[in-house]
Structures are given as structure tokens and as C-alpha cells.
TrEMBL record:
Superkingdom, taxonomy of origin: Eukaryota
Coiled-coil zones: none
Protein name: Alanyl-transfer RNA synthetases family profile domain-containing protein
InterPro entries for this protein: Ala-tRNA-synth_IIc_core (IPR018165), Ala-tRNA-synth_IIc_N (IPR018164), Alanyl-tRNA_Editing_Enzymes (IPR051335), Thr/Ala-tRNA-synth_IIc_edit (IPR018163), Transl_B-barrel_sf (IPR009000)
Positions of the Alanyl-transfer RNA synthetases family profile domain: 1-236
Pfam families: tRNA-synt_2c
PANTHER family, sorted: ALANYL-TRNA EDITING PROTEIN, THREONYL AND ALANYL TRNA SYNTHETASE SECOND ADDITIONAL DOMAIN-CONTAINING PROTEIN
């Protein structure tokens, strides 16, 4: 598609719930889905283990409403998938360059930000409780069972105590409060902010976006977060063991080998107070 990359406006303010943008194109995909492409967006496109924002798009005159059900990015272009109000059809006469109003669902944005930040906080806590030797894997920040994977071995007799220590550390930091910041930086400065190095997938000629929790080392990340970890409110952890397919039996000495998962607490659907904006601008998605 011959279009300029979509401006990711939520990089400038992760908690912006309303904005305006101009229509670039209106499409219907091969599978029948309808999508709007805009010159900028405050909707987070699914990626990095975090679900997309939802909400709706309308014109200033109230002539139509397009319900955004899914958001994806491809080659720098953001696709807002959804459907028009039941009383309208895909033949709605929309014009390229027409200005629209964008509205993000506040409760879902807050929930997704809390779940995502909880995953990052867990990374910090793993370091703090002496589990830095466990290699981080994938993160899943959806509400139907969020987790972060860490691959390695924990001695069987330490599994329970480490789980309890990890949970205490996470909730102590939540009670204490740690400010969260984000910024788009030149490669060298970003590397310094992340403890002296960046993952190999970050190009040296890029300007990565770095998310930082207090004075702890930052990491590349393109997602949304809370303004302070106190907004997470609570985290519950459990360890789950996972063994390779060629293991014929569970070795009791390696019962702690596998995945450590962090689960935010039960009060996830309570709305958060709106946090002040962060100063950040562009590029790329990182491991979360």
C-alpha cells in the first residue's frame, strides 16, 4: 500500500482518550472486514503481547460512527478494523482528508496498561530477588490469563519461598510507588538508559522508544503503561513448570525448571485516575 506511515500519537501521551485525525483510506479486506486508515492514531495496535485498544471513530457532525474492534500495524501503517453503526453501511460516503474524531475506551486502556506494566515490574522483581539468571521469554498481557515466561532452573526447595519473595517484592514496590516514563532516544543514549546495551533486533541507526521504571534500567517498548506502578494495585504470582517434549519423566530435582508467571491481582476492572502525559514520539516495538 502506497501510504505514509501512520503517526503514533499515543507516543506523545499514552493516556489520551480523544483526538482528531484525517482519513487516508477506507478499505474492505478479502475476509470481509472493514478498516479505516488515518494519518495519525491514539489507538494502540496489538503487538508485544498487549491487546489493541478499542473505541470508536466519528465525524464532527454525528453522521456516522465506526466501532473500532481491533487495531493492527503493518509496514508502519495502522489499520482500524471494525464496523459502522447498524444503521449505516460500508458505502458511507467518506472522503480522503476528511477529519474524524477518535475515542478510545478508557476502561480497556487502563486495564491493558496495568497488565503490561505488571509484566515489566515483574522483570525488575526477578532481578531484585536473585532470579536474574532466568532468561526472559515471551509476555502475554491479556486479561484472560496474563503471564511472563522465564526459562531456567529454580531448585525444588526454593520454589515456594521464591514465589512468596517475588510477590512480596512486587507488592512492596507497588505500595511504595515507582514513576514510569517513556522517551524516544538516539541509539547510544537509549543503550545507556537500558544499562549499556540494547537487544540485537534494535537497529543501530534507529531511534528506539525506551520505557523506564524509576531508576531501574529501561527497555525498548512501544506499548502503553501506567504513570506509576502504584496504579497496578496488586500482583499475584505462581510458578508453573514446563518440560521439553523429549523428557520421559519429571525429575524432582528440576521441578522448578520452566516458567515463572506473574498475574496482577483481582481488582483489574476498577478504573484508574487519568495520569499526566509522557514525552515520547516514535518507533519501535520491543520485548515486553
Amino acid at each position: 500500500m502506497d501510504s505514509a506511515p501512520t503517526k503514533i500519537a499515543y507516543f506523545d501521551d499514552m493516556w489520551l482518550l480523544q483526538s482528531t485525525a484525517k482519513l487516508v483510506s477506507q478499505i474492505q479486506t478479502e475476509d470481509g472486514r472493514q478498516a479505516l486508515i488515518l494519518d495519525s492514531t491514539i489507538f494502540y495496535p496489538q503487538g508485544g503481547g498487549q491487546p489493541s485498544d478499542t473505541g470508536f471513530i466519528s465525524d464532527g457532525g454525528g453522521n456516522f460512527k465506526f466501532f473500532v474492534e481491533d487495531v493492527r500495524m503493518k509496514d508502519g501503517i495502522v489499520f482500524h478494523y471494525g464496523k459502522f453503526d447498524a444503521s449505516e453501511t460500508f458505502t458511507t460516503n467518506l472522503q480522503k482528508g476528511q477529519e474524524f474524531n477518535l475515542y478510545v475506551d478508557e476502561l480497556k486502556l487502563n486495564l491493558h496498561s496495568r497488565l503490561h506494566s505488571a509484566g515489566h515490574l515483574l522483570d525488575i522483581c526477578m532481578q531484585n530477588v536473585g532470579l536474574a539468571h532466568l532468561g526472559p521469554g515471551k509476555g502475554y498481557h491479556f486479561s484472560d490469563g496474563p503471564f511472563v515466561e522465564y526459562k531456567g532452573t529454580i531448585p525444588q526447595n526454593e520454589v515456594q519461598s521464591k514465589q512468596e519473595e517475588l510477590e512480596r517484592e512486587a507488592n512492596a514496590l507497588i505500595s511504595e510507588g515507582v514513576k514510569v516514563s517513556a522517551a524516544v532516544l538516539p541509539y547510544e543514549q537509549a543503550s545507556e538508559m537500558c544499562g549499556g546495551s540494547l537487544p540485537s533486533y534494535i537497529s543501530k541507526d534507529s531511534i528506539p522508544r525506551i520505557v523506564k521504571f524509576g531508576n531501574y534500567p529501561g527497555c525498548p517498548c512501544g506499548g502503553t503503561h501506567v504513570g506509576d506502578v502504584a496504579e497496578i494495585r496488586s500482583i499475584k504470582q505462581c510458578f508453573k513448570s514446563q518440560f521439553s517434549q523429549d523428557s520421559h519423566a519429571m525429575d524432582p530435582e528440576k521441578l522448578g525448571e520452566g516458567i515463572a508467571s506473574g498475574f496482577p491481582g483481582p481488582d483489574l476492572t476498577r478504573p484508574n485516575p487519568k495520569s499526566p502525559g509522557l514525552n515520547s514520539q516514535i518507533q519501535p516495538m520491543g520485548r515486553v
